[in-house]
Each structure stands twice: as C-alpha cells, then as structure tokens.
Amino acid sequence: MASSVDSTALELSQLGINEDFVSSVPNLRKNLHLLSPEQIELVKILLEMGQSHLFEHWAEPGVDDNEKKAFFDQVARLNSSYPGGLASYIKTARGLLADSKAGKNPFDGFTPSVPTGEVLTFGDDSFASFEDRGVREARKAAFVLVAGGLGERLGYNGIKVALPAETTTGTCFLQSYIEYVLALQETSNRLAGECQTEIPFVIMTSDDTHTRTVELLESNSYFGMKPSQVKLLKQEKVACLDDNEARLAVDPHNKYRIQTKPHGHGDVHALLYSSGLLKNWHNAGLRWVLFFQDTNGLLFKAIPASLGVSATREYHVNSLAVPRKAKEAIGGITRLTHADGRSMVINVEYNQLDPLLRATGFPDGDVNNETGFSPFPGNINQLILELGPYIEELSKTGGAIKEFVNPKYKDASKTSFKSSTRLECMMQDYPKTLPPSARIGFTVMDTWLAYAPVKNNPEDAAKVPKGNPYHSATSGEMAIYRANSLILRKAGVQVADPVEQVFNGQEVEVWPRITWKPKWGLTFSEIKSRVSGNCSISQRSTMVIKGKNVYLKDLSLDGTLIVNTAEDAEVKVEGSVQNKGWTLEPVDYKDTSVPEEIRIRGFRINKIEQEERN
Ligand code: UTP
Fold it and tell me: How many CB atoms lie within 10 A of CB 8?
C-alpha cells in the first residue's frame, strides 16, 4: 500500500489512536502497518464514532489486502462527499434516530397557514405578461435536472430520462428538456438583441444513472446542445445504519464494504455549491436556478410564466404548484409559524398535513375550501431559486439540507430495524434554514398544463383508486396530447373532444395526438400567432410540427399530418388534410415481445397513412 506506516516503529499513541479503542479491534491492530497516514486518520474517526465492528472480521495481513485498501477508498469517499464528514453524518443520524424512537413530531410548536403566491389562469392577460417576462429572464437562468433516482416504482430497465415522453415522435424526456432550453435560449437572446448567451444545463446523476446518461447524450450529439454547455454532477450514496446507535452497516455481500443507499435529491444543493458552478454563474451575471425532475413532459409549458412570477414578485424561492384536492397524495406548500417566532414556507407531506392541522385548531383537518380545493397548493417539486440569495445561504450551510430518517422497526420497542436505514434529504427542504426575511412564494398552474410525471409501473397504476392520477407512462403521454389540444383550443382551433380508452387497465382520455417542437411555440402568445382562420382537428388525428416558422391557416385535419421544414423556411399549412392516419393499437404490458418502452404504456402506434409537408 502507498506510503505505509511501519507499526513496529510506531506506538499507537504516536499515531494518535486511543489504545483502548484499538485493543477492542485486534484484527485491525494486526493490519495497522498496512495503512497510510490518511487511512489512520479515517481509522480514528471510525473508532471514535463507535464503528469498531467494521473491522471485526478483517483477515490477517497478507490476506485480502486489496479489499482492505478498497474499504478505505470507500470510507474516504463517504467522508469527503458529506458536508462535515462521516463523523457529522453519524452524529446527525444518532440525533434523528433518537427523535424517531421517541416519536417526536418535527412540527411540534408550529402552526400552519397558507403562504402567499400567484395563482395563474392559462392564457389570460396576466399569464401572457408573466410568460413574456419569463422568456426575457431565461437567458439569466441555469437549469438543473435531478436524475439520480432509481425509479424503483416505475421498474423500467433503462434510465428514466431515456424514455419517450410520447411515442408519436419518440422524443425522450432528456431530448425534450434540452430542446426546450435551446428554444428558450434562442428566443430570450433574440429579445435581448444578443445571441451569445448559453443557458447552462446541469444533470445530477448517481452511480445508478451516470454512465447511461453520458451514453444517451453522446450517442445523440447532446440533442443539439453544445457538450460544453452540459455539466454532469454525480451524487454519492450514503452509509446505511444498522441500529439506533448509528452503527454503519456492513455490506451483506462484502465484509470490506459499508452498505450504501441513495441520500435523495437534496444532494443537489451541496453538489452545486462544491462544484463552484454557482459562483461561476453569479460572476457571469446569471440570476436564476431552476430545478426540475426526470419525467414531467409538461413542465416546460409552465416554466416561462413561473419564471416571470419569480422575476416580477422578486421571489428568492418560487415553488411550482398545482391545485390540490384535500387528502390528495401530494405535499402541500405551507407556512409554518413557531410559537418562538420562527417561520418558514415549506412542503408538508400529505400524510403530515392532516394531523398537523387537526393538532393546531383546525378540527376538520385537510379539507377543501369554497373553491373545491385545499387552500394549500400541491407541491410538484420544481423550484426556481434566485441565485444571489441562494449562494449567500449555501455559503453558510455548505449546501447541507435538513435530513430525515425513516427506519422500519421490527417491533414496538423500536430497538431494531427490519433492514438497514440511512439519512435522506429532499431538495424542496432547502427553505427550512432560510431566515424569515427570505421572499418565498409559489406559482399555481393547472395540472393539465404543468404536471404529469411518469413514476408508476402499469400494474401499480392500474390499482390507483379511480379519480386519482395514474402517473404512469400511459397517463404521462396522454397528458401531453391533452395539454397541446387544450392550448390549441384556447388559441382558436376547433379540437375535437377526446374519447375514453383503457390501456394497461387504466382508463384515459385520448385526445388528438398533437405535438410540436418547442421552437414552434414556447409561449401561448407565440402559439396563437401561428394559428389563424378556421382550423379544426378531429379526434383520430395526429399532427406533428417539426419546423419553426409553420403557420396553420384554415386547416381541416382528419388523419395524420407531419410538417417538416428547413430551419428558417416559412411554411403555411392550409386546406383539408384527410387520410387513414395513425391508430393506437393496444398491447399488454406483460407481452415481452414488445419493446419495454412501448409495452409499459399499453399501446403502440400503427402508422397507416400520413401526409408530409416539407
Ligand atoms: P422520485 O421521487 O421519482 O424517486 O424522484 P426515484 O428514486 O427516481 O424513484 P422511486 O422512488 O425509486 O420510484 C424525484 C426526482 O428526484 C431524482 C429522481 O431522478 C427524480 O428526478 N432523484 C431521486 C435524485 O436525483 N436522486 C435521488 O437520490 C433520488
């Protein structure tokens, strides 16, 4: 091993290790001479933090020495990737595990109330002016996609961002996000009369997603973005915990490894901070950081207006939200005021909101008000932070986010766990440490416009109680067609009503399959300007607009129309288009002869006949 220390020449005390600690781990003692000074420092931390059991089964020197080195490589990584190191992780874990054992309520002493925010109505004047402002601000924004999650609930074998958001064009989530950012960049620069600004695009990955994310980008030429514009930050997993003393869990498959699990998307703040990117962006004059998740095909329809709200209302934190039905399984954005004067605006998970309300003078708990919705907006976990105050806060915290622990106890004594647990953190808990002076708000938009994540596998989605969202690949794709249909309706196109169909056991509305590239229409005013006269689209129709300067005029579509144009060519699409079109053919999710991306949505598109305009 590099720079090894000869134990025969060194007393334990010289190494700075307490004799009592080391004598409790004879197997480690025998191996001490193999260790470098840096590794000795890690030994000290582990022993002082009560982790001697990690060395219990170590072999004699000369046996498994490479594995022992790999053990310390892992410990060094765990130590350096956590703010405050492993000692701090273990200390925090002990505190949180003790609170959990005692059944302590994290909201003790807090009273909930409805915070202030902006509730938008798609397409009205105020929406249009927020969109206009948002597009102008976009060149001062950086976009951060958190994509390190395993996606266990979806159970897809690939990475989630590689899944087609819809199968009419087969555009995957990552491509769609990148194309939206590029379209924002182009329009925002044009409005500013400049063309140089590149909007930074960051993807947080993990060991579960990193390599495949790089492959997806590289094999598709970064979907048109400059490779230098995209930065990947990989999050590390954290150590698992075996008991209330926070003894680190030995990996069941390798006694020279600590078992690890994901820490959650809250890691994104520490990673952005330690990468130095935030400082670079600040120096480059950027003002906003937008955080978003891996599988929401609608999100960017909500981005221009929400960014406009951030800029107009000068929000340090703006949480995107949708109207929430009482008791719906979605967190509520809530102001919490403590008896001691502390106050914060954060997401309260739905299962905590009802008991909290009942305990604080709202005997009916989580109920709808006269609007038919809960007064607490539903959090969709997309955040817009103002960069200046964000950096200021992170320079105090290093990006550490308030964590939580969720052990599954074996019995009521709460002394042992069914399986190892770990600390977790969520990006939306960032405001928990902010001072009361921070300007925190929300932007509510219709669910049909802003939120349709793909999280559940077909089997679980089919079991979702009627009326609740499926959040499946089927519903995610149908939501894109519905949103595009509703937007065109609002722009004056007669779009036929949808029909109900069942795919993979889920009843969904099937609207005409309308899609367009972001550069065709980024905002409602832009889309409106591209449509004129008497346009109509029948329910069985498919329309794909790939060009930028495409104008629909008196179009009557009953079938499939694909409009492909060269970059700047102006094309008018007029008159009647009628053909056999494309149909949806049901497939079963269990039919493994069908590719996974297709069968998880329960239908495939049968391309019978189409008209192409170039
Ligand atoms: P989800 O709640 O969808 O979790 O994450 P998940 O891990 O992806 O899926 P399940 O729970 O295993 O089914 C919300 C977003 O946060 C990212 C995900 O990639 C997704 O965009 N995420 C989650 C991370 O980036 N890192 C994590 O450790 C967890």
Answer: 8
Task: Specify whether 445 is located in the same domain as 513.
Answer: no
How remote is the CA of residue 150 from the centroid of ligand 1, in Å? 6
How far is it, in rounded angstroms, from Cα 407 to Cα 160? Answer: 27
Which among 21, 49, 80 is the end of a domain? 80
User: Tell me, what DSSP letter sits at residue 249?
Assistant: P
On whether both 175 and 44 belong to a single domain, the answer is: no
Instruction: Based on the fold, state whether residues 529 and 482 are members of the same structural domain.
Output: yes
Give residue 76's domain range.
2-80
What's the half-sphere exposure (Cβ side, CA atoms, 13 Å) at 516?
A: 26
Residue 4 scores a pLDDT above 60: no
CATH number of the domain at 564, please: 2.160.10.30
193 & 131 share domain:
yes
Distance between Cα 306 and ligand 1 center (Å): 23
Is 356 within 8 Å of 335 (Cβ atoms)? no
Average pLDDT of the residues in 469-485? 97
Q: Domain total for the chain? A: 3
Question: Residue 295 CA: which ligand 1 atom is closest?
Answer: 21
Let me know whether 327 and 441 are in one domain. Answer: yes
59's enclosing H/E stretch is: none
In angstroms, rounded to a whole number, what is the distance separating the alpha carbons of residues 142 and 68?
42
Please identify, by atom number, the ligand 1 atom nearest to the C-alpha of residue 148.
25
Mean pLDDT of 427-436: 91
398 shares its domain with 502:
no
**Which residues are near ligand 1 (CB < 6 Å)?**
146-154, 204, 206, 262-265, 293-294, 455
In a domain, 86, yes or no: no
Domain co-membership, 313 together with 379: yes
pTM to 2 decimals?
A: 0.94
Calculate how far, in angstroms, residue 144's C-alpha sits from the geometric centre of ligand 1. Answer: 14
Ligand 1: centre distance to CA 48 (Å): 34
Kindly report, residue by residue over 227-254, the tens digit of the pLDDT: 999 999 999 999 999 999 999 999 999 9
> How far apart are alpha carbons 86 and 94 in whole angstroms?
12
H or E segment to which residue 318 belongs? strand 317-322
